[in-house]
Amino acid sequence: NKVGENPMTYFQNSFAFVRSAGLLALLGMVALAASSADAQDMMGMNKAKESGIYVGLNYANVENDSIVSLDSTPAEYDGDNFIFFVGYRFMENWRVEYQMLDAEYDDIVSDLGNRLYDIEDEIEIFSVIFQTQMGKWHPFLRLAHYDSELSETHGSASGSFEYTESFSDSGTALGAGVDFDIADSLAFRVDYTKTDDHDPITLGPIYHF
Fold first, then answer.
1. Number of neighbours of residue 32 by Cβ within 10 angstroms
2. What's the confidence (pLDDT) of residue 194?
3. Nearest Cα to 95, choosing from 51, 61, 151, 59?
4. Is-contact 148 121, C-beta < 8 A?
5. How far apart are CA 62 and CA 105, in angstroms?
6. Would strands 186-194 and 115-131 be described as parallel, antiparallel, or unpaired?
7. Closest to 167 in 3D by CA, of 152, 156, 178
């Protein structure tokens, strides 16, 4: 607990970290258990569909704990957005994938009327994915590099001043999730990825060419 830090803020940040780590560990165990199963016959059933290029446009809920609040301290905000991704399966259980997310967050107004607005967050994720199969379920693990660019505008209640700040970040991301077969070329994905400042949870359809 940092000196002067609100105990409730410290508790909330600690709980969020434990929640994120627990979810990632749970999904990881599911994927590892599936990889040890004897599913060779089932893999052959959908081999044609599971080869080549696939794309998706999914709903994304993004938490960002790097946005600077109106009192110049880090805060955590979340927004509902969409994420686009394209991937390629180059081996039986291996894929490469590119994800792009443009996140926008709600305006924030302080008690004095000062505003933090036009909060835009662009995230790119480049992944190597290991994926296995259990019938119609395809759990996976993700190791990725990400780049993010955050822009936010500050303004006074009277309109006497306004300025924009931009921040960039990059690093390693880890993730896990599962695809569920709906039809020959269509699946549904649930995915969680953890970066230094972001916790995107995505879900939606995937189309296989």
1. 14
2. 92
3. 51
4. yes
5. 9
6. unpaired
7. 152
**Distance from first CA to last CA of the chain, Å, rounded?**
51
Type of residue at 157 = A
Q: Examine the pLDDT at 91 and tell me if it is beyond 80.
A: yes
Q: What is the pLDDT of residues 177-187, one digit of tens each?
A: 999 999 989 99
Contact (CB, 8 A) for 119 and 67 = yes
- Whole-angstrom Cα distance, residue 159 to residue 197? 30
Q: Is 164:180 a contact under the CB 8 Å cutoff?
A: no
Provide the phi-psi class of 93: left if phi over 0, else alpha when psi is between -120 and 50, else beta. alpha
Cα(200)–Cα(60) distance, integer angstroms: 6
> Residue 161 belongs to what H/E stretch?
none
Who contacts 151 (Cβ-Cβ below 8 Å, separation ≥6)? 118, 119, 120, 121, 164, 165, 166, 167
Both tokens of 32, joined, read: 């590892």
One DSSP character per residue, 169-200 reads: EEEEEEEEEEEEE-SSSEEEEEEEEE-SSB--
List residues bridging with 186 in a β-sheet.
Answer: 207
What is the per-residue pLDDT for 100? 95
The pair of structure tokens assigned to 111 is 């008690």
Cα torsion angle, 133, 181, 28, 93, sign = positive
- Provide the sign of the torsion angle of the four alpha carbons 196, 202, 208, 209, taken in this order: negative
